[in-house]
Amino acid sequence: MESVASAIHREPWNKGKIVGQKSPFKVKDIWALRVRLQMEHRIRELALFNLGIDSKLRGCDLVALKVRDVCHGDQIATRAIVMQHKTQRPVQFEITSTTRDALQAWIKHAELKSDSFLFPSRIHRSPHLGTRQYARILAHWVDELGLERASYGTHSIRRTKPTLIYRRTKNLRAVQLLLGHAKLESTVRYLGIEVDDALEISEQTEI
Fold first, then answer.
1. Residues facing 75 on adjacent strands
2. Quick one: which H or E segment has residue 71?
3. I want to staple 22 with a disulfide (CB 3.0 to 4.6 A). Which of 66, 156, 168, 205 is the partner?
4. Residue 140's CB: how many other CB atoms inside 10 A?
5. Between residues 111 and 205, which one has the greater pLDDT?
6. Three-class SS of residue 60?
7. Cα–Cα dist 57/101, whole Å
8. pLDDT band for position 88 (cuts 50, 70, 90)
């Protein structure tokens, strides 16, 4: 049976799809979505979006956060540290006042306890929001912003703030620490900054 099953042709998961690095969100898109989520009282989504931007975590780490990971007692912490599932390395992140307000409102609304998952799943068999559910929520955000869905994914959230930080400071080491990368080369590849920097230099060179 195993030989028969292994002989079945399986199409590549990425056949016919646009793959590669996903675009980070622009500042105007971030604020446009925040305002929409606030006006429509989409409390959970606002907390998820803001924390995703601040934390710079992979989707699997973001959805697995518990209330105690971001809270000190009844107060939302200004900084947090979590262990990354992929690398088993700790990474720290800041929680801005905008995100703290959104998290406080969500925790109160959902009546979450310290040991509760921060984003419980609405599917009974899953204790917390799954990465596929997160991806579907993000795809809906992209649609609402009128952006091209194929160009964005959950890594767009992770890449957004580090990309802005690098463009403003050119401090690659700081970005490496924020993303929790073991090697600087990984950060360079992840942000695609060599290409961006090369194009910027080329655009500024007139002949």
1. 72
2. strand 71-72
3. 156
4. 12
5. 111
6. helix
7. 19
8. confident
